[in-house]
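Q: Is it fine to ask for two folds in a single conversation?
A: Yes, each is treated on its own. Send the first.
Q: Here.
A: Result:
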Amino acid sequence: MVKYLPFEAPLMQLREKINELKEFTANADVDMSKEISQLEDRFSKLAKEIYDNIQPWDRVQIARHPERPTTKDYINAIFDDFIEFHGDRNFGDDEAIIGGIASFEGRPITIIGHQRGKDTKENIRRNFGMPHPEGYRKALRLMKQAEKFSRPIICMIDTKGAYPGKAAEQRGQSEAIARNLFEMAGLKVPVISIVIGEGGSGGALALCVANQIHMLENATLSVISPEGAASILWKDATLAQKAAEAMRITAPNLKEMEIIDEIIPEVLGGAHNDVVQQALNMKMVLSDSLEKLKNIPADELIENRYNKFRAIGVYTE
């Protein structure tokens, strides 16, 4: 059963009423199909009204939805013959990063992404999608392998940020992220990144130095969480909603600032409502991106990537 978010309360109440009438119709000798149909039409209109006027904080909540599809869900729905690789050949395997090789429309690709859990047990195992240094080193190992065999690289971003714990710092968290930024900038194969949920801080950026960056409609990308920003700016984390509006972290904001290339539409209510359809929406964008990048020479790919990030931001005196 899909969980409703706070701003979806009117929809939840209407859905409960529809379910009550359906149950009553099933258990009693009364035909209420007309009333049910009217309520379902009302539900559709109300849903469209709510989602057409969605606010930044609402998008943050959708991006954090516990049932939102993960990298693994999209790998299973979009790619064929996925083979997962493990380990950084230095310390160990970080399950907060999933990666390997697969086939996309008959073409071999390398796919890498953040992976959070679907329940408490899996979240603990995957460290809630917050990678340690070995996760980023595993990602870089797979990227260099892709470069060696001329495979395009597709990255999926979905993390609150890199793990900030003591062990991660001892093993070189900052260096691992910086190394990824440096090496990704010079990769000689096409790199496409898609923000599928939360994109937090350097933990997200470590998979984001790409020729093309796309975002799902309700995903977010920011240097810090709204709660963290509110704590710094106003010493009050409860002002996260205000911070989310000021930070301009949503896909429409980032598209307007030309930080991302394309917004991938989500199904009504968010990607968690129809994973199959959402995967099809993503597949169309991926296919188009790979087609645009496939014949570009390596030196041009590198130059385009460099110019893309150099152009971000506005300088005024």
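Q: Second one now.
A: Result:
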Amino acid sequence: MNWPTGTTLAGKVALVTGGSRGIGAATVRALAAQGAAVALSYADSADRAEALAADLRHAGTQATAYRADQADPRQVSDLVQAVAADFGRLDILVNNAATYVTGRVDDAEPDLARLDRQLAVNVGGVTAAVRAAARVLGPGGRIITVGSMQASRAGFAGVADYAATKAAIIGYTRGAARDLGPRGITVNVVQPGSVATDMNPPDGPFADVQRAANAVGRFGRPEEIAAGIVFLAGPAASFITGAVLDIDGGYLA
């Protein structure tokens, strides 16, 4: 997708965690199209992250990829500090990195290691990033976390642990909005619905069920989620904080 270019974010520096693919990569491109310098983090997809950063630099955008494991609070804090030091500031944090692990609560042999890592990434990684960003963001700062429609309506069996992690960040976001509001920093959540990515392909085994659950009868595109994130990152959203923006094709309608 060719993003409409603009200057709403000119002079701003944004960090997108998990920015090498899917919604994260679309968000990186959308922020850059509005004039922001962009840092993106990755855990495993080094080639994709470096290629995206190089592509943006070729187009004239300041962009750098950083490796960080979102399950490690120290690495997350170091990531935020490194971005602020390398770019000279940080204005926008997008908490996009997450993992998705399914498993029924009555499983006889649950994969506790994977479930614990999901909690560490989806909740611990977000809280560590917000705390670190709160030390460097100035007035007009923006924090946006990518949640999930399943925090509001599970809808499917086997998603209790994942839904709990996404519900937790809503409560954390609302509390952080109270803490940071007096400083002119907004904190919000975007909740995507079924989005076509390599982790959730529209021709996957559960694709038809997902399409049928949406009012519009289709998967969303990563760019449609990124558009909501860019809006919340911009000056027009300065009076929106502690909010949850559903971009779910009517799944919750």
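Q: Anything structural to flag on that second result?
A: Two points. Strands lie at 13-16, 37-42, 63-67, 92-95, 142-146, 186-192, 244-247. The mean pLDDT is 95.
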